[in-house]
Amino acid sequence: MVRFSASGVRLDQALAFEANTSRAKAQAWIEAGLVRVGGKVMTKPSYKLRGEAVEVEPPPPVAAAVAAEDIPLEVLYEDPDLIAINKPAGMITHPAPGVYSGTLVNAILGRFGLEVSPGEGEEADRPERVRPGIVHRLDKDTSGVIVVARHEAAHRRLSEAFAGRSVYKRYLALTVGIPPEGLLSAPIGRHPVDRTRMHVGGIAARHAQTDFEVLASVERYALVSAILHTGRTHQIRVHLKHLHAPILGDEVYGRPSELMARQALHAYELRLQHPRTGKYLHFVAPIPADMVRAWGLLGGRWPDGLQTEAMGPIREG
Question: What is the pLDDT of residue 118?
Fold first, then answer.
């Protein structure tokens, strides 16, 4: 419970100061009927106080709804500053509207108990903004390397590295069609009709660059290496669609496939500087079994040097 009295100042301003919170959050509390002025509920943030007693019982942070959970994780690397994880396909990186359980955030909170705050200002009251330690993300159905900061200083430095494009990110994809090789520069924005999708040259398009290399091909299918130079939403998927070689199994930018139950995209390799020592770290997540199987059924062979998950003989059906 927060109690105070003030005079000659707006209610939302005084509440923000006394409760050590943002003015926007104070306004939300007032409009929700959580604030009493002189013993009566006051829902007008602009009300000018005249010395009355103010009482408010702040709601518990919604961040508490994002619970620590015991979820198995494949840890590629761990030290006091950061963790590198091989995220499985099907796992959401962080909470989203209506999805507050089973995410990577739930798993890392359960296993590591991070020292990174869940968010700032209004973010801590929105589960979908609770992203402790998260400095970059992977789509739900994209597998592979993801790095998590263990404390605030590491989070800040890693975030700056990703924003400054000093991190090497290499993905592997199976495509329907063989894309041209080389650097593609094509801006990406929201699709003009379907706002859940991204589109080359879409609304509010932003600069996007991806370097493509065809590592192997079988008939009309290809094993493609994609190096990201920018980090736009769905960037590799959108760029490959633009090149008329959508990712195998991508239901949004291509078509479903009997060979893969998700898009065949894997964050294979990540290189970055350690946030404290400056030493370069190199992480590789072995290519998952479902991609190994799909490429094998297509008649493909994995080039030497790529790491794949061990699996049994490939059988039809």
Answer: 53
Contacts of 157 (CB under 8 A, 6+ apart): 275, 276
CA distance 243 to 86: 28
Q: For residue 176, what are its two tokens? A: 């329907």
The upper half-sphere exposure of residue 316, i.e. CA atoms within 13 Å in the direction of its Cβ, equals: 2
Confidence of residue 116 (pLDDT cuts 50, 70, 90): low
Size of the chain, expressed as the number of residues it contains: 317
Q: How confident is residue 283, by pLDDT bands cut at 50, 70 and 90?
A: very high
Note whether 36 and 78 are within 8 A (CB): no
Annotated active-site residue in 12, 125, 139, 250: 139
pLDDT higher for 317 or 252? 252
* 192: DSSP letter: S
For this structure, is 139 an active site residue? Answer: yes
Tell me if 289 sits within 8 A of 262, measured CB to CB.
no
What's the CA angle centered on 106, arms 72 and 93, to 5 degrees? 90
Burial, 70: exposed, middle or buried (Cβ in 10 Å; 0-12, 13-18, 19+)? exposed
* Cα–Cα distance measured from residue 236 to residue 175, given in angstroms and rounded to the nearest whole number: 11
Quickly tell me which residue has 């590295």 as its tokens.
161
Q: 243-280 in b/e burial notation, b at 16+ Cβ within 10 A?
A: bebbbbbbebbbeebebbebbbbbbbbbebebbeeeee
Distance of alpha carbon 302 from alpha carbon 296, whole angstroms: 9
pTM summary value: 0.76
Residue burial 157-194, b: 16+ Cβ < 10 Å; e: rest = bbeebeeeeebebbbbbbbbbbbeeeebebbbbbeeee
